[in-house]
Specification:
The chain is an alpha+beta fold. It folds into six domains: 100 residues, Rossmann fold, CATH 3.40.50.20; 138 residues, D-amino Acid Aminotransferase, Chain A, domain 1 (2-Layer Sandwich); 69 residues, Dna Ligase, domain 1 (2-Layer Sandwich); 120 residues, D-amino Acid Aminotransferase, Chain A, domain 1; 128 residues, 2-Layer Sandwich (Glycoprotein, Type 4 Pilin), CATH 3.30.700.30; 67 residues, OB fold (Dihydrolipoamide Acetyltransferase, E2P) (Beta Barrel). It has 17 helices and 43 strands. The strands form ten sheets. Strands 14-13-10-11-12-15-23-21-20 form a nine-stranded antiparallel sheet. It has an eight-stranded antiparallel β-barrel with strand order 27-28-30-31-32-33-34-35, surrounded by four helices. A hairpin with an 8-residue loop joins strand 7 and strand 8. Helix 4 runs antiparallel to helix 5, helix 7 crosses helix 8 and helix 12 packs antiparallel against helix 13. About 2% of the residues have low confidence.
């Protein structure tokens, strides 16, 4: 077995590999760029080597620097994680030439499966079901239009060397093919240095389901069940689960056997994932094979009990798999939520900055559930614009899908992140979404359920009651600190008949204390909107999370102070709450509402990013829907279009400039 390995990656995946290596008694070496000098993976590793500037093309993507770090530290093998150099055959070959082991498949398999065009040809030869399409390289936009017309709309335009949703567009018409072809090529060129694209039929109402395979150098290949990855946004996975709520045993076995056949055909060694599109009749079609560890691998580990990183290391060291296909059992259900640094209320645009507060929920067993949090950040860390926006991967396991979802909802509601915008409100709302809970999924789920983007969920009457209970209990605890009387606390003296009004956004909820004395921990009967509920919590002033019970219902919510009140975040709700006496509530209703400023004559940068292109000139008349500018952030291009007919009066930015959120790109007449 290896004595020392180098992890050629960063962030949560580097930390995750280090944990397994440490458990196996293997020393670890981290590499880091200027931006990651104080990163968590650097602190966790036994040694760390600086490899260059923040830009990945000058650090993490430079194979020569990784090899030099191996020689400097005596690392015998390299684990590439995912992304960066993980699927680059030339890197694998360069390591082999230097006598360094690549913890992953051989270069032959990487080459065969790494090119989407060639991989589909290979899959066809191995009798794996594939999507109808044109496997040749598309020469230009006109060629793309002709092929799309022949296949039939809708079609998917995809980068040949792509992955992670980059260089991918869906086209429903000839006009969309031309625009999508240009954008896909541009993204592919900037992300992979390869602008080749191909076209295939787009499956309507598709599910994205993938099979995890493991293979060793002795001819043993197994599949470890499937992962459902249909909850996606911009072709990026957001939430995953294992197993899939859609597959039956026959389909699971057929997909697994085809995946094993493909792995054998390319003489695969290590962990790999065969991805399929599955239609509403459970017909499945090969998409691609990822010759690396997947981001969502923890859910497979939770339902199988198999450490995939450990098996990758063992296989690379020449060991046989310690189990056969008959030994694989799927136990319970696991859910993964990807916590991203992005603003769900602004169409999930990237957010960067410092984590002023980072308080994840505790990992481990709790009753019949398990919580796991794979992360590469810490409180005070910086979320950079140079890399992907991943904060953490929060996973829950339970005996059933419903229990795993409920555990995830509670965990998300107790996961505190401040300093940047993040997608926890969306993920929390997802856990309560009826269609998600029923398992009626497709890759179009987010677009179909949130066609106008995600907005704060509007509370119903029952949720108003819970929110009012949280707000009133926190207010009473804070006020009562000043009126301590033995072990019990009096309610504030300015509360005639202990009556209160709780303002939740624009809604006023009446509340009355049934018992006039407040206990610590808080345990009181309160009449909210005429209904009496027992409220129990051990919340203390300054706590970021309120945990307790409202009318017997377990509740976990986040509390943040605002002027004269608090903001409560719970189940995707985000509500400003203020507690008044009835007299103060009457006066509050008379206060004027401040209107937001009018910015309709400006094009504002929606997120921190780099201006890739300005598509108009000063004085130009533009029609609604036409492209104004293209801004890139966290490796993804965002096209900014005109929302109405207008005339460009002034352009304030130029290509190559880095802009902050709400920076004025151009002005309109």
């Amino acid at each position: 077995m290896f004595k020392k390995i180098l992890i050629a990656n960063r962030g949560e995946i580097a930390c995750r590999v280090i944990k397994t290596a440490r458990r196996m008694g293997i020393a670890t070496v981290a590499v880091y760029s200027d931006a990651d000098r104080d990163a968590l993976h650097v602190e966790m590793a036994d040694e760390a080597v600086h490899i260059g500037p923040a830009a990945a093309v000058e650090s993490y993507l430079v194979a020569e620097k990784i090899i030099a770090a191996c020689k400097q530290t005596g690392a015998e093998a390299v684990h590439p994680g995912y992304g960066f150099l993980s699927e680059r055959a030339t890197f694998c070959e360069a390591l082999e030439k230097e006598g360094i082991v690549f913890i992953g498949p051989k270069s032959k398999a990487i080459r065969a499966m790494g090119d989407k065009i060639e991989s589909k040809k290979f899959a066809n030869a191995a009798n794996v079901s594939t999507v109808p399409g044109h496997l040749g390289v598309i020469e230009d936009a006109a060629h793309a239009e002709a092929i799309a017309a022949e296949i039939g709309y809708p079609v998917m335009i995809k980068a040949s060397a792509g992955g992670g949703g980059k260089g991918m567009r869906i086209a429903w018409s000839e006009a969309e093919v031309r625009d999508g072809f240009d954008r896909a090529r541009s993204e592919a060129r900037s992300s992979f240095g390869d602008d080749r694209v191909f076209i295939e039929k787009y499956i309507v109402e598709p599910r994205h389901i993938e099979i995890q395979v493991l293979a060793d150098a002795h001819g043993n290949v197994v599949y470890l069940g499937e992962r459902e990855c249909s909850i996606q946004r911009r072709n990026q996975k957001v939430a995953e689960e294992a197993p899939s709520p859609f597959l039956d045993e026959a389909t699971r076995a057929a997909m697994g056997e085809q995946s094993v056949a493909l792995a054998r055909a390319v003489e695969y060694q290590s962990a790999g994932t065969v991805e399929f599109i599955v239609d509403r009749e459970r017909n499945f079609y090969f998409l691609e094979m990822n010759t690396r560890l997947q981001v969502e691998h923890p859910v497979t580990e939770l339902v199988t009990g198999i450490d995939l990183v450990e098996q990758m290391i063992r296989v690379a060291a020449g060991k046989k798999l310690p189990f056969a296909q008959r030994d694989i059992r799927l136990n319970g259900w696991a859910i993964e939520s990807r916590l991203y640094a992005e603003d769900p209320y602004r169409n999930f645009l990237p957010s960067i900055g410092r984590l002023t507060r980072y308080r994840p929920v505790p990992e481990g067993n709790s009753g019949n559930t398990v919580i796991r949090n794979d992360t590469g950040v810490f409180e005070g860390a910086e979320i950079s614009m140079y890399y992907d926006p991943m904060i953490a991967k929060l996973c829950t396991w339970a005996p059933t899908r419903a229990e795993a979802i409920d555990a995830m909802g509670q965990a998300l509601d107790g996961f505190v992140v401040d300093g940047i915008e993040h997608n926890i409100p969306f993920l929390s709302a997802l856990m309560k979404h009826p269609r998600w809970r029923e398992g009626r999924l497709s890759t179009g789920f987010i677009a179909e359920e949130y066609p106008d983007g995600f907005a704060p969920v509007q509370p119903d009457a029952d949720q108003h009651a819970v929110l009012a209970a949280i707000a009133l209990s926190t207010s009473l605890v804070e006020s009562s600190r000043r009126e301590r009387f033995g072990d019990r606390l009096r309610a504030p003296s300015d509360a005639p008949r202990e009556q209160w009004t709780v303002r939740l956004g624009d809604v006023y909820v009446e509340a009355q204390l049934v018992d006039g004395l407040v206990t610590i921990p808080f345990d009181m009967d309160i009449a909210i909107a005429g209904k009496i509920s027992n409220i129990v919590t051990d919340w203390r002033p300054g706590d970021a999370v309120w945990r307790g019970k409202v009318g017997g219902q377990s509740v976990t919510a986040q509390i943040r102070p605002i002027l004269n009140g608090i903001r409560v975040d719970w189940q995707g709700l985000s509500v400003k709450a203020k507690v008044f006496t009835p007299r103060h509530a009457a006066l509050d209703k008379l206060m004027p509402v401040k209107l937001p400023p009018d910015t309709s004559n400006f094009l504002l940068c929606p997120m921190p990013g780099l201006v890739v292109a300005i598509a108009v000139t000063e004085g130009q008349e533009v029609k609604a829907g036409e492209t104004l500018a293209v801004v890139e952030a966290m490796k993804m291009e965002n096209v900014l279009r005109a929302e109405r007919d207008l005339t460009v009066s002034r352009i304030n930015a130029k290509p190559g400039e880095s802009l902050a959120v709400d920076a004025v790109i151009m002005e309109f007449a």
